[in-house]
Structure formats: C-alpha cells, structure tokens
Amino acid sequence: MTVEIREADLGAPDDAQAVVALLDEYARHPMGQSQALSGEVLARLIPGLRRHPGAFVLLACEGADRIGVAVCFQGFSTFAGLPLINIHDLAVTAAHRRKGVGRALLEDILHRARESGCAKVTLEVRDDNAAARRLYKRMGFGPWSVPMLFVSRWL
Taking the mean position of all CA atoms in its chain, how far away is CA 150? Predict the structure, then answer.
C-alpha cells in the first residue's frame, strides 16, 4: 500500500468532507467517544479549525481515498522555551488499520516538528487503547512510567 501524507485544504469541499467523516468515524469508535459527533459539532468543526491559529490537519491518502487524519496544534513548551506540536486526534479508517497508516502520519508530524524547531510532540492516549500505545511506544513516545492525569472542565 502506498500512502501519501499531505496537509488538508480545509477550504476545499472534498478535503473538508473527508476530515469531518474521518473524525466522525473516530468519534463513533469505543476508543473515541462511542457516539457520533452532533450536528452542531459537525457544522462548526471545519470553520473552527480554519480560524484556530496554529491548527493544521494532515490527511493520509491512498490514491483518491482519504484513509487517515491527524489534527494538530502548534503550542509552546515553557520548560524548553521552544514550540511544540500537540496531536489532538489521530485516526485511521477501520479498513486500513494495522497497515502503517498511523505510523506514516506520525512520521510526517515528527518531520514537521524537527523542521520547525519544536522541542517535542505531545499527544493523549487512552490507557485502555493497547494498539495505539504500542504504536506510540515504537515511535519513541514516553516515558510511560510518569503518572499523569489529563483533566478537563467542560464549559
């Protein structure tokens, strides 16, 4: 399988629809939120990403098919005094999992981070997502022994 990784053009209807479809598929999965994105979220997703400073979205493509997505945000590491990239979402269609698509997306993100002088790349992963944890560990993410909690307060 030949996978091309490219930045999504969120102004192009085909790319925008693909990003929404991929994120909705991810949301429906138990490792997402086990339910579809609401109509309100679907309507504001692309306009919101287009307006958000530092946001970029990558698509994994096999020919004309979009088979994976990574939604990333540039941030800043105060401990390093350098920029960072946070991978907020990384998803691959069910039919293309375990075929190197997630790895290709991660490799592209890491390349972009090095090229732009970032100190690190961060992400969140569910404790019970063994497949994703294996991939991230193989790609050098860690340490895994530091107990940290990710908390949020919805507004």
Answer: 17
